[in-house]
Amino acid sequence: MTSVDSGTSADFIRSVIAEDLRTDKYGGRVVTRFPPEPNGYLHIGHAKSICLNFGVAAEHPGGVCHLRFDDTNPTREDMEFVDSIQEDVRWLGFDWQDHLYYASDYFEQLYALAEQLIRSGLAYVDSLTAEEIRDFRGTLTEPGRNSPYRERSLEENLDLFQRMRAGEFEDGRHVLRAKIDMASPNMNLRDPTLYRIRRVPHQRTGDAWRIYPMYDFAHGLSDSIEKVTHSLCTLEFEDHRPLYDWFLDSLEVYHPQQIEFARLNLTHTVLSKRKLRHLVEQGCVSGWDDPRMPTLSGLRRRGYTPRSIRKFCDRVGVAKRDTVVEMALLEHCLREDLNQHAPRVMGVLRPLKLIIDNYPEGQTEEFEAVNNPEDPSMGTRLIPFSRALYIEEDDFREDPPSKFYRLAPGKEVRLRYAYLVTCVAVVKDEQTGDVVEVHCTYDPDSRGGTAPDGRRVRGTLHWVTEADSVAAEVRLYDHLFSQPNPDEDTDGGDVPADLNPNSLEILQQCRVEPGLGEATPGSIYQFERQGYFVVDNADSKPGGLVFNRAVSLRDTWAKIQQAQKNPA
RNA sequence: UGCCCGGUGGUGUAGCGGUAGCACGUCAGCCUUUGGAGCUGUAAGCCCUGGUUCGAGCCCAGGCCGGGCAGCCA
After folding, report:
1. Direct distance between the N- and C-terminal alpha carbons of chain A, in angstroms, rounded to an integer
2. Residue A3: is its pLDDT beyond 60?
3. Residue A391: phi, psi to the nearest 5?
4. B31 C1' – A425 CA distance, angstroms?
């Protein structure tokens, strides 16, 4: 039932629903809806709404959540988006069963309702131009004025409206408006527009209509037609609720309850279709599904799991104050999920050759590695070992700082699952002075990684063999914006100032353990000691592996270094 | 400057007149064949001023601050 029963407290919306159930306001029904306009891709902000609407419905026996496309504006909508939206909602893990609807399915009913409003003397055809209407509307502090067409006769209104439908007038010639109150302090009630002429084909109704209903008229009445009980929307529609109610009451039809909640905001990114579109169009990202994008398709390609996103939406909660959630929480939710479920592998991002001088040339052996220490049922695998290996460049320092537990001249470390090795020499590039090869000796008695005498070895390094490892490209992603709250507008038309220039780093020379050769797109691994990486679902091919870093592991060493750099 | 909504640690969120809690983040420690994970601990909060009350984060009044609204967009 409600989450109250499970020990956690209900948010204000669930409380309202629980109360409505208690008073039997809707005959025990719970019907919600997720109403996207098919004019763009879904993002993490929509996920909050999806989780809320579908979540609330699922919490009650018989509860359902409709997926309804608010396709009332053919000039900006496209079927391409209705497909991607359905895909994303399904991917997130929700099911609308057979409740897939389109506002355009109701055009005929909505038209009849509009005529009914006219007959009740509550709507009229206005023939002012768009500019005149704006002018007559008044301002936030001054009342508007009545349109000279406001008192047209019922017959004339009906006739005009029917001819609007018939396509007799060009765009903008007339509109249908509600007759409410041009002096209302609520701008939405100053005779809002109900229908406008748009002589363009609609993606679903084709040439059937020359007039299309506006959001306020279509939305609430669609809710009513579908017998929605709770119509959950974001805060900016709060001022629209009196209008929502006005239509329902004036037409004396079934009356759902609109409830508003705060939309999601996230640090280090932007969350509006307009701004996201800008990033795509300016080429700041590779597309709507760029792994840095907060779109669901971007997050999916980045390696985010549906479960982690649902968990995130859960933790973010639902309330009315508008807030900005830290990206760190989203990342935490991903780590938490992947720690539990992602298989561990070894992958070297920046390879440095390591030769074990006393390990026989040509000899190889295998070690058993644990696939997931958090989940023994995931079993083990065998990984090959030999004389020539690669380790991470960062794991060797010729002149190690304090607290550096990794490899350095004379120091001993453990090669994960394999042997303890001690650095005995380095080979440098004569030109640059860079260390290009590290030489070690191994302790044959430390097979598996434990010292026979119990001596303590703090550092454990991941590695791959030179011969068996597989080449891969790895894309390292970071926040799209360097500031937590990016500069609001990018009106100039080019790249936003706060765009993080280091949000993508491509590594071409990576080596991963042999088993990854047949990794399939979309599968996610933990590269031990580094982070979680997903096989890119667009660019990875057999023989041309591409991994995206979803999120790094918590990096304590990085913090220590940071502290050493900035004492205080 | 009209109307509407909202202000609880750095962030998000509980608390419904009776000891201000949880999570993320921070810092410290423990543990560790991932400097991962885990565990323990630490610091940090009711916008302000009055009022009602034995008692106010919660109720009332007045301020202050933040957000939304003037599409033939949604």
Report:
1. 51
2. no
3. -120, 175
4. 33
Nearest nucleic acid nucleotide to A369, CA to C1' distance: B33
CA→C1' distance for A143 and B70 (Å): 10
Task: Write out pLDDT tens, residues A297-351.
Answer: 999 999 999 999 999 999 999 999 999 999 999 999 999 999 999 999 999 999 9
Residue A472 parent element (H or E): strand A470-477
Nucleotide nearest to A332 (CA to C1'): B24
User: What is the DSSP-derived secondary structure letter of residue A428?
Assistant: E
Which of these, A96, A79, A82, A118, lies nearest to A217 by C-alpha position?
A118
Tokens of A163: 């001819």
In this model, does residue A4 exceed pLDDT 50? no
Task: Tell me the average pLDDT across A149-165.
Answer: 98
- Of the candidates A189, A156, A195, A155, the one whose C-alpha atom is nearest the C-alpha of residue A175 is A195
3-state secondary structure of A504: strand
Give distance CA A260 / C1' B65 (Å).
22
Closest nt to residue A488, judged CA to C1': B67
Q: Which nucleotides of B are covered by protein (CB under 7 A)?
A: 1-8, 10-16, 23-28, 33-38, 66-74
How far apart are the C-alpha atoms of A142 and A120, rounded to whole Å?
28
Strands (E), A349-410: 351-356, 364-370, 380-386, 388-392
Question: Angle at CA A218, nearest 5°, toward A215 and A219?
Answer: 75
Beta carbons of A321 and A262 less than 8 angstroms apart: yes
User: What's the confidence (pLDDT) of residue A491?
Assistant: 54
Average pLDDT of chain A is 95
Nearest to A390 by CA among A448, A470, A446, A476: A470
DSSP symbols for A378-420: G-EEEEEEESEEEEEGGGB-SSPPTT--SB-TT-EEEETTS-E
CB contact at 8 A, A295 and A276: yes
